[in-house]
Design the sequence.
């Protein structure tokens, strides 16, 4: 009996130690990594990198680059990487592609786990948020030749990299939204040209609607998040906060902002703007191509989307109609390239980020609809012809508020927009409340 | 391990020594499970408890600011959180009730001797194993406000409504497809569990009842229902916990709270706070509040059920 039990205990101990060791080995690494790496990087990276740099040329470096490019863009990115690797022997770039909606989560998970990509392409609206968390490497003073690189970039896109006195990214690509008008629907309604002013825009939106036998809307918006009404908002002189980002009072609820939302609210009430923006309706891209929506407002990527989904559809762009003061405007979109805090290959990472800003790389990506951020490439014959209207629009387009709390501000305006569309509040009341909410975020 | 009987006092002294040494191999066998549990459940749980008391900085946890119960206070006084709680409760009460009643009905049908029984069992279980994501998107298409099947049937065929309903533009109507989806997808599972309970009831009881002249309704009332007691308790507890943890259909059909943050479930709000606004402390606090709610509700349920059984 006794020996028997002893043998059993021995066997069970063996099994246990085997399973425990097996279980611990992989799991110990991730749990310990953040602590170990955080201190490693903080203390060793700065001292090690310069010392090893001259001898490191032989040691191959594999960079991790994360992005949210589309299919054709990803194919073109591979060409850019090949060119970069040819020019920089010893450095390879491995990419990970994410869906836009999962991207922030993936990055945050990687950051909190201490396993960050070296370089990432980031929505311009996120850079200050990530920089505020300490997740990004400051580029001025660290990236060789930084001043020369940014000298040739457009100031609007560049400004989205600026937070708390420093630059945390480079403007990788830029875009803005312009008016898309469906020529067939316009012609059937007896209109030959896109509207030039907001008054014409509102009139056309309702004319096109009334002249159609089947359900048709003059204008449709993708949603109530700020990006959707932003071009009209800015063109009509709307502002979210003051330049110094200290208050929203008399800006987001100022007369121009209220007028912009009042126009949209009226279009909605008159049935000239589709109710799809409240959720659960026909998407703007499909509706526009299928003659349901005469006008939508969207970006340069629509060319490729229509090429794939509606090859026979003729895409027509026009500038955003002008506001009461006679000027047009829109919203700046785009992506920046950032180097992440915690990278073990900072020097190579900087090289790759800088390479993406070279005219060669920018031209290659331009061929798939990524608008370059280099002023010297504006009007370059290599650019697709439809870039012209966007480049013209970019001259007056405005960036959203570069602030770590922008997501919350966006939400405040989004909810205000919903409240006025539902008739819970007048545009003035809804925006007064949004101003209060944004002011609270700025405290 | 649930079946171990309690020894009498007189026997206990005699057995203590042996039982103690018996415990060691048992413990050793339990150890891998316990280690894994500690590593992957207890550890992260305690860590997130810690996060919930901080204004947490994800990149530099050392720079996090201790704020005590502020995150919890913020959540409890936040109207969006209160609405999320309300949505989650309403969703849970409606779906659990419907799944229990319909599940029992289906189980009773499937328990009959009839042709094609296997086919029907399979058919009712099929929704359970379909992907949440796919059927969520499918329901979203069906309830599309401008081109959806449901509006077409209600408006153009049945003529019950004068114009299209924008299901996803209204914070209450949005819950309709979400709740219907969960019921449709959950009936099969409840039915299978009920079916297992039904088949454990000895056929002699029904035979005896029939001899005594009980009709099928009386049989259901006096034999089936009481003997299904433990199955019912199990189902209610598991379904309620599952309901309170609803996430996927809410996230997919409301994009996380649309419109106006009025359609959040507790978990979608937790997700948005954590990953949308990088407010990890607040997100952790929300998940702990949910844990407390689930715990209290489960306790109440078990107490009620035990009272009923007694």
Sequence:
């Amino acid at each position: 009996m006794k020996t028997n039990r002893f043998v059993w205990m021995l066997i069970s101990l063996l099994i246990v130690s085997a399973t425990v060791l097996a279980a611990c080995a992989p799991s110990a690494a991730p749990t310990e990594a953040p602590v170990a790496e955080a201190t490693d990087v903080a203390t060793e990276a700065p001292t090690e990198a310069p010392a090893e740099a001259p001898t490191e040329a032989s040691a191959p470096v594999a960079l991790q680059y994360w992005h949210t490019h589309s299919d054709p863009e990803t194919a073109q990115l591979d060409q850019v990487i090949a060119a970069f690797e040819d020019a920089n022997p010893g450095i390879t770039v491995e990419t990970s592609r994410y869906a836009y909606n999962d991207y922030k989560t993936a990055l945050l998970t990687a950051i909190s786990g201490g396993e960050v990509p070296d370089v990432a392409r980031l929505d311009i609206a996120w850079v200050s948020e990530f920089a505020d968390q300490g997740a990004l490497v400051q580029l001025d003073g660290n990236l060789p030749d930084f001043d020369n690189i940014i000298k040739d970039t457009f100031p609007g896109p560049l400004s989205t990299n600026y937070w708390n006195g420093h630059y945390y990214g480079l403007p990788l690509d830029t875009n803005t939204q312009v008016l898309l008008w469906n020529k067939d629907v316009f012609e059937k309604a007896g209109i030959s040209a896109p509207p030039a002013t907001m008054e014409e825009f509102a009139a056309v939106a309702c004319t096109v609607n009334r002249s159609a036998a089947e359900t048709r809307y003059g204008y449709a918006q993708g949603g109530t998040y700020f990006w959707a009404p932003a071009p009209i908002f800015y063109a009509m002189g709307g502002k979210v906060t003051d330049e110094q980002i200290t208050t929203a009072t008399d800006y987001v609820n100022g007369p121009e902002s209220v007028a912009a939302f009042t126009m949209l609210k009226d279009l909605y009430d008159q049935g000239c703007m589709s109710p799809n923006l409240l959720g659960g309706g026909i998407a703007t891209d499909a509706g526009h191509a299928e003659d349901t929506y005469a006008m939508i407002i969207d970006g340069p990527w629509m060319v490729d989307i229509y090429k794939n989904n509606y090859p026979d559809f003729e895409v027509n762009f026009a500038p955003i109609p002008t506001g009461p003061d006679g000027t047009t405007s829109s919203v700046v979109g785009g992506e920046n390239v950032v180097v992440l805090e915690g990278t073990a290959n900072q020097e190579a990472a900087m090289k790759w980020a800088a390479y993406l800003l070279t005219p060669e790389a920018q031209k290659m990506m331009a061929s798939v609809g990524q608008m370059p951020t280099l002023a010297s490439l504006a009007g370059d014959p290599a650019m697709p012809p439809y870039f012209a209207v966007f480049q013209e629009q970019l001259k007056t387009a405005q960036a959203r508020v570069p602030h770590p709390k922008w997501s919350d501000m966006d939400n405040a305006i989004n909810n205000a927009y919903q409240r006025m569309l539902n008739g819970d509040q007048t545009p003035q009341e809804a925006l007064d409340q949004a101003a209060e909410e944004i002011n609270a975020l700025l405290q | 391990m649930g079946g171990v009987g309690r020894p009498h006092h007189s026997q206990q002294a005699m057995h203590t020594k042996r039982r103690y040494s018996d415990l060691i191999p048992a413990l050793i066998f339990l150890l891998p499970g316990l280690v894994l549990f500690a590593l992957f459940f207890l550890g992260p749980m305690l860590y997130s408890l810690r996060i919930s008391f901080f204004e947490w900085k994800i990149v530099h946890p050392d720079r996090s600011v201790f704020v005590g119960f502020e995150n919890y206070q913020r959540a409890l006084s936040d109207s969006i959180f209160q609405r999320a709680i309300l949505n989650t409760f309403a969703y849970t009460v409606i779906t659990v009730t419907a799944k229990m009643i319909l599940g029992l009905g289906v189980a009773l049908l499937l328990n009959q001797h009839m042709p094609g029984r296997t086919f029907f069992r399979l058919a009712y279980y099929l929704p359970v194993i379909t992907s949440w994501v796919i059927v969520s998107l499918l329901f979203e298409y069906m309830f599309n406000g401008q081109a959806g099947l449901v509006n077409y049937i209600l408006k153009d065929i049945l003529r019950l409504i004068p114009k299209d309903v924008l299901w996803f533009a209204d914070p209450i109507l949005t819950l309709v497809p979400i709740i219907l989806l969960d019921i449709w997808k959950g009936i099969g599972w409840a039915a299978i569990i009920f079916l297992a309970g039904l088949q454990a009831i000895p056929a002699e009881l029904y035979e005896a009842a029939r001899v005594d002249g009980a009709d099928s309704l009386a049989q259901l009332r006096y034999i089936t229902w009481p003997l299904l007691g433990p199955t019912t308790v199990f189902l209610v507890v598991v379904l309620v916990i599952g309901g309170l943890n609803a996430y996927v259909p809410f996230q997919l059909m409301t994009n996380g709270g649309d419109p106006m943050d009025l359609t959040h479930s507790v978990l979608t709000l937790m997700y948005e706070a954590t990953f949308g606004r990088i407010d990890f402390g607040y997100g952790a606090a929300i998940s702990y509040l949910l844990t407390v709610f689930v715990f209290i509700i489960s306790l109440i349920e078990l107490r009620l059920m035990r009272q009923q059984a007694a």
User: Anything to note?
Assistant: Chain A is about 50% helix and 10% strand. The first helix of chain A runs from residue 2 to 56. The first strand of chain A starts at residue 61 and ends at 67. The mean pLDDT of chain A is 86.
